[in-house]
Amino acid sequence: MLLTRGSARGGHLVEEAEYFVDRVLRNVAHGRFERSLSDLTAFAALVTTAEVYFEHYRASFGNKWMWSPIVVTPPVVVTGVPLKYSTQVITNIRHAAGAQDVLTIQRFAHLIGGARMGSDPQTSVVNSDQRTWAVPNLFIADGSVCPTQGSANPALTIMALASRLAERIVRGDVRADALVGSRSARA
């Protein structure tokens, strides 16, 4: 997407981008940094969404786009959202951190089901309290406990499971002394 001035289609977006940057800088300068983070987070999500969209577009239609310029403010600041570049940067970071073998898979997925929830220790890793059957007092609060994926992004389900577990632990519904391999005792 290219943001332009004037009567061109989408020209009003440049003024909105300028206002956004000014507002963020003003918030930081006046100590309202926390509120300004929400805007930055939303902008980062927009860039990530654009990267995913263009990668899917390229893969789906054979388009060879490597990046799409986004003009944020005058003077023109062009920021690419290149999947290839980001992959190289993260690979370099991994090697710098001491990684021996770095496997890069060019795909997007919501990986779930690696530590499935169930009622039988023979066929599942955690019980309905998200407590592992084999290790006492170990809880798993991520997407791996979902036995299967629904029709869309599982982020809200994962957040709900984590929130439910945290609330139950705080209330005492999940006891620390529950027996391994048994259902957790209720308070």
Description of the molecule:
This protein has helices at 12-29, 33-61, 83-96, 155-171, and strands spanning 70-71, 78-79. The protein has 187 residues and is mainly alpha-helical. It folds into two domains: 12-96, no CATH class; 109-187, no CATH class. Strands 1-2 form a two-stranded antiparallel sheet. Strand 1 and strand 2 (78-79) form a beta hairpin. Helix 1 runs antiparallel to helix 2. It starts with 11 loop residues before the first helix and ends in a 16-residue tail after the last helix.
In short:
Belongs to the GMC oxidoreductase family. With 187 residues, the protein is mostly helical.
What portion of residues is helical? 40-55%
**Averaging pLDDT over every residue, what do you get?**
69
Structural class: mainly alpha
Report the span from N to C terminus: 55 Å
Say how many strands there are: 2
Protein name: Glucose-methanol-choline oxidoreductase C-terminal domain-containing protein
GO molecular function: oxidoreductase activity, acting on CH-OH group of donors
Keywords: FAD, Flavoprotein, Oxidoreductase
Organism: Mycobacterium gastri
Layout: helices, strands, pairs:
Blueprint: H1 12-29, H2 33-61, E1 70-71, E2 78-79, H3 83-96, H4 155-171
Antiparallel strand pairs: 1-2
Helix pairs in contact: 1-2
